[in-house]
Amino acid sequence: MSSVIKLSSPATHEFWEIPVLFEDAHLLALDKPAGLPVSPDRYDLDPARPTLLRLLHDAIAAGKPWAKERNLNYLTNAHRLEADTSGVLLLAKSKPVLVALANLFSMEKPVQRYLALVHGTPVQDRFAVNARLAPHPTSPAMIRVDPNGKKAETVFELVEKFASHTWLRCLPRAARPHQLRVHLQNSGLRIVGDELYGGKPLLLSRLKKDYRLKAGREERPLISRVALHAEQLELPHPITGETVTITAPVPKELRVALKYLREFAA
């Protein structure tokens, strides 16, 4: 079977080639690209914005080659990734498998690992944040730490340290909406590119001392989207019970950002 799912949006003239990370008779795991929402967001004011699920369902209905060779008539995500987050997204090929996966996620059986590039340096190489989360009372698109909110815990581990940035591994429990972003903000750290929570784009001019921009040109950030990547998902298979580990490689824009940080901000 094809190792890439090809999707297109006639409305926006966009095209995606999405790698398949894992597949069997019951599960399909994709390497979701940054910038493509999984499903409609109630805060998104653009109803024409493509979503991954809508594109997948339209392709199945149209009998695209990748869908026909798999004999697919059902495909639904078992968990969510935020629009700007790249990486492992697990989908169920049938309703019974979706129910089984939902039970696993509700019991916090899957282990999710993320990578984040943040402004600043944590005090400790490994630290945990245990802070309840709830919707922001005046900014509905945001989440905030709230003692009356839902339980949320994240463990953070240092992967690589730079002069003014840090590459972190993040291990959330429960994985509430915006959990990593808010827990980091609450720790005095902001994810690069996460303007909603105070993060800034990563600019080469801030790293390279002799940086010169040609006249009339505007500097483009090394990375402008939220620098968050769903690196790995580990869970018991909903049918066989065997441990399944699915890993998504670090995307190009993050590899480029790390390259320049190593060169000019080590």
Strand-helix topology:
Blueprint: E1 4-9, E2 14-23, E3 27-32, H1 52-61, H2 65-68, E4 76-77, E5 86-92, H3 95-106, E6 111-119, E7 126-130, E8 133-135, E9 143-145, E10 153-161, E11 165-173, H4 179-186, E12 190-191, E13 228-236, E14 243-247, H5 252-264
Parallel strand pairs: 5-13
Antiparallel strand pairs: 1-2, 2-3, 3-5, 4-5, 6-11, 6-12, 6-13, 7-10, 8-9, 10-11, 13-14
What does this structure look like?
The protein is α+β, with helices and mostly antiparallel strands. The protein has two domains: 107 residues, Alpha-Beta Plaits (2-Layer Sandwich); 158 residues, Pseudouridine synthase. The protein has five helices and 14 strands. A hairpin with a 3-residue loop joins strand 2 and strand 3. The mean pLDDT is 93.
Tell me about the largest β-sheet.
12 strands, mixed
DSSP, total strands: 14
What is the average per-residue confidence, as pLDDT, rounded to a whole number?
Answer: 93
Continuous helix count: 5
Specify the CATH class of the largest domain: Alpha Beta
Q: What percentage of residues falls in helices of 4 or more residues?
A: 10-25%
- At the fourth level of CATH, the homologous superfamily of the largest domain is Pseudouridine synthase
Low-pLDDT stretches? none
The rounded Rg comes to 19 Å
What gap, in angstroms, lies between the N and C termini? 43 Å
CATH architecture of the largest domain: 2-Layer Sandwich
CATH topology of the largest domain: Pseudouridine synthase
Structural class: alpha+beta
What's the helix-strand series? EEEHHEEHEEEEEEHEEEH
